[in-house]
Design a protein that fits this description.
Elements lengths: L1 H9 L51 E2 H4 L14 H17 L7 H5 L11 H10 L19 H5 L6 H9 L4 E5 L7 H14 L2 E5 L2 E11 L2 E7 L8 E3 L5 E8 L11 E6 L5 E4 L4 E4 L3 H9 L3 E9 L6 E2 L3 H4 L1
Parallel strand pairs: 8-11, 10-12
Antiparallel strand pairs: 1-4, 2-7, 3-4, 3-7, 4-5, 5-6, 8-9, 9-10
Helix pairs in contact: 3-5
């Protein structure tokens, strides 16, 4: 039975409820802060998702690594690149399921999404997976002289080339979907988690400010358990039984007709002046100078006037011409 095999295979590797980040790397906060809400996210309820009655039960257990093949374990060293690590592992599994085993570059993803203070949002990694893909590790290595990397190294992109960009497109994925859950997890949450692992090759999520890819599920000591593939080398994998919040659960799926909201632009507001601006894809702000224009943007599907992200100041943004967007 899969459950028995799973326990035998990972008993020495897994230590339930332990911290996912080794103590020596825990002086800085983890690399996966919770991402800001964005109404444009596709959520599980927005999709034509149907639970599969053939999905193995918790008692039976299921693990993508056991069904397909075991993935290489990476080590992110002192870097905060866990979001890049998690997404590259998930993409490796999806390629393994469809084509065969590959080794993809965590640096290729992280070097495009890191935050100024280090770390990244899971959503930004998902956007890279969908829009740009992920190149092979041999083309953009995630190790320094074959040793675990530093933060500075994982931010480097000077060695990206037309070849790495073209290769990444080979592994470009589908649409990303967000699984909204509560804490503590409800029975419905656990059921959705089980189905996503079975139907979509697993998922990526945050846990204790650390991002990891989830490969399988089973019962352990009578408790529902999922298995994280961690990015601190062999024997660093994690089990999760609901002890802390998991967040920003995201997975990839075919979605020929996604909801129109994903194409909308965001409205950002200044809390002090109460002025509202359209945030273009070029990251420039355009002032929405009257109610008529706001209604036109809403009615034409460019933006949702009921979804405004209010900020204390907008100094970090450039200002552009609204007519460049709406003409």
């Amino acid at each position: 039975m899969i459950f028995s095999y799973l326990l035998a295979s990972y008993r020495q590797q897994l230590e339930s409820m332990k911290h996912p980040i080794p103590l020596r790397y825990r002086l800085r906060k983890g690399g996966c802060p919770k991402q800001p809400d964005d109404f444009r996210d596709i959520k599980l309820g927005d999709t034509p998702y149907v639970p599969d009655p053939n999905c193995p039960s918790w008692e039976q257990g299921f693990d993508n690594e056991i069904t397909h093949d075991r993935l290489k374990r990476e080590h992110q060293g002192s870097s905060l690149s866990c979001v890049g690590q998690g997404w590259s592992k998930y993409l490796e599994m999806l390629n393994l399921i469809e084509e065969g085993l590959v080794d993809l570059s965590a640096r290729d993803i992280y070097s495009q999404i890191y935050l100024p203070q280090g770390g990244a949002y899971i959503r930004d990694g998902a956007k890279i997976a969908v829009n740009k893909g992920n190149c092979l590790e041999t083309l953009l290595t995630s190790y320094q002289n074959e040793n675990p990397p530093t933060e500075a190294f994982m931010r480097l992109r000077s060695d990206a080339t037309p070849q790495t960009i073209a290769d990444a497109l080979t592994y470009r994925s589908k649409k990303f979907v967000y699984l909204d859950t509560s804490y503590p997890l409800t029975d419905e949450d656990w059921e959705n988690i089980r189905q996503v692992i079975w139907q979509f090759g697993g998922f990526v999520s945050g846990y204790k400010r650390h991002c990891m890819y989830v490969s399988g599920y089973y019962l352990k000591n009578g408790k529902k358990t999922i298995r994280f593939i961690n990015s601190y080398g062999e024997n660093s994998d994690q089990e999760y039984q609901g002890d802390k919040e998991i967040y920003d659960i995201s997975f990839l799926m075919d979605l020929p007709n996604p909801p129109n909201k994903i194409n909308m632009l965001k409205i950002v507001g200044n809390k002090t002046t109460r002025k509202q601006y359209l945030l273009g894809k070029d990251r420039k702000l355009r002032w929405i100078f009257n109610e008529t224009l706001l209604n036109e943007l809403h009615n034409s599907g460019v933006a949702d006037k009921f979804e405004v992200e209010w900020k204390d100041n907008l100094d970090r943004y450039e200002v552009g011409d609204i007519w460049a967007i709406i003409k």
